[in-house]
Predict the 3D structure of the following.
Amino acid sequence: MAKCERCGASFDYDERQGVCPRCCFYNRPPGTPRQDMEWMKYYNVEDNSYQLPKSEGGLEELFPERKRSWAKRIRDSHREKAAHTGTSENVSSTRRAREGRNLASARQREARLARNKNKYSRGNQESASAYREYDERTSKGTLAGKIIAIFMVACVLLVVLTAFLKNASTDGWQFGGATQTEEGELFTVETRTVEEAAEGITAGDLTYRVGETRTFFREGELSDLPAGEKCIGIWLEDNESVLDFTGYGWERPYVYDGSSFRRMLDAESLDDGDKFTLAGILPFPIYGAGFEDESGYGIFFVDADATSVTLSLPCQTVDPDDTDKINCTEVIDITIPLAE
């Protein structure tokens, strides 16, 4: 058992960890140096009450920095006590003072609300003005964006239309009496019969005569002949002696076999060009425009299943002011059945 150094009470030191159960004093472990116990002379062990040091000036002398606050609290305490226990005059005076303070507080609150209202009102007006300016800028920006978008859409549509017309020319489609050449140029179209073509057709500055059509070679008979195609020849005669053309690039006749346009071939440039010579086939020349009448078979590779082709004769004229230039705005079509 241990004995409290302050009040003398006995207790189990280990169980209480050195804290006295009577006065809650912490007793240092046995064997440690004793503490200065001078401060305990004011402690009355009999009634277990601790007496604070007395001062003639009271707490004001011990804590001079809090003298004013304590004095105010004491005065307020006396005033409230007098209000509760004093005369009706004191009570009414206290009530009037409280009501006056409440009224002043209410007026201050109203004035503050009024200032805030004006402030927010000006803020709203400024916000509205700023919003109008922003809306105007946004409207202008939106209009410019719409114009740009419309321009881009128009460009896209133009590209799509160009591609469509190009595909249409490949497929041989016609548009309101006009068609496209193998070069993609849009021409006015006129049609003639095989009989009219045999008698002679004026196509611009040339006169063409169209004769027989023959199938010369099939798949496997020419090394240059693609799979699924055949080689045909259309007899052509033209009168070039009337021309006064000194340039190059004269457009030769071409055919449409039901799936695509076909150029006239230079038989001599083919790997098996000698087969035409050995077979006695005279090809029609394709380079430039001569000053002599030309004749021969126009050589074409067409679809192997084609039973007829459309021969197109470009109607080209020489510019009288410049014999190096030619113009072409029309094409003559003749539908010709293919003989085996």
Q: What stands out?
A: The longest helix spans residues 88-171. The helical segments are 13-16, 59-62, 67-85, 88-171, 194-199, 273-278. The chain has six helices and 14 strands.
